[in-house]
Amino acid sequence: MINCGYGRPLVAAGFAAFVFTAHAAQAAQCGNGPAGFEAWKREFAEEARGRVGATGVSALMGTSYSSATIAADRGQKSFRLSLDQFLAKRGGPAIVSRGRALKQSNAALFASIEQRYGVPPGPLLAIWGMETGFGASRGNVNTLSAVATLAYDCRRSAYFTDQLYAALTLVDRGILSPSTRGAAHGEVGHTQFLPKSILNYGTGGSLDSVPNALNATANFLRAHGWQRGAGYQPGEPNFSAIQGWNSASVYQRAIALIGRRIDGE
């Protein structure tokens, strides 16, 4: 999600980026099917020159329209389930059981993360389990093609235009490659960070590394207001940080509940 790696820009820089992005979104026309993707890609590449390096532009030109991404984007029905239905579908009890075991076997890692960021193991393990089944299902869709397709698609073009610029920047920096693969919306790693989150909250290295992914996730939560020692259930101070992770209410409540059960509360 996230999903969605990962400092925040100055207001003036953020405004300048917004103006540039708004201009780009108007110039490169979005579409609702594969027919216009190649023309859009050429237009976007021209607009990106100067903001993105040659490596990033070249990577963009190598992308293709991802029908799998569009299908996934139109089929997110599980977020409409009740909490009990959602937990059953996602295997909540299994996540709790495995999460407790991983909490013990990785005690030193979680102690280090909590000391640094103030985030206890429970919510981190809940996110890890919910996002990828503790790394078992990280996706097999080309990341750049997924993000480029969603930047082109009219449904959420502005949001994913920002994600695409972030992805191309990460390619320029060698953090992503043209062959990187992940989930259908462009999320990568054990906890499924989108490219912009990698830029803002990543703590160094690939998010296919468990310690890197968990540290980045804790960094994300701290940046979204996590308070050391405070509760994270609905109505408690840290629940708002969990809300920053995913916009779906049922997903937020599932993270909080699974995390509490892992932490033994």
List keywords for this structure.
265 residues; mainly alpha; two-stranded antiparallel sheet; 2 strands; disordered N terminus
Count of folded domains = 1
Strand content: under 5%
The rounded distance between the terminal residues' Cα atoms is 26 Å
Helical element count? 14
- Helices and strands, in order, run as HHHHHHHHEHHEHHHH
Mean pLDDT figure? 90
Radius of gyration, CA atoms, in whole angstroms: 19 Å
Total strands: 2
**Largest β sheet strand count, sense and barrel closure:** 2 strands, antiparallel
Strand order of the largest sheet: 1-2
What shape does the CA trace take? globular
- Contiguous runs where pLDDT drops below 50 for at least 5 residues: 2-26
SSE-based structural type:
mainly alpha
**Helix percentage range:** 55-70%
Task: Describe how the helices and strands are arranged.
Elements: H1 11-27, H2 37-48, H3 54-61, H4 67-74, H5 83-90, H6 92-105, H7 107-117, H8 121-132, E1 141-142, H9 143-152, H10 157-172, E2 181-182, H11 195-201, H12 210-223, H13 239-245, H14 249-262
Helix pairs in contact: 3-10, 6-8, 6-14, 7-12, 8-14, 9-10, 10-11, 11-12, 12-13, 13-14
Describe it:
This protein has 265 residues and is mostly helical. The chain has one domain (11-262). The protein has 14 helices and two strands. It has helices spanning 11-27, 37-48, 54-61, 67-74, 83-90, 92-105, 107-117, 121-132, 143-152, 157-172, 195-201, 210-223, 239-245, 249-262; strands at 141-142, 181-182. Strands 1-2 form a two-stranded antiparallel ribbon. The two termini are 26 Å apart. This is Transglycosylase SLT domain-containing protein. Keywords: Signal. Residues 37-232 form the Transglycosylase SLT domain.
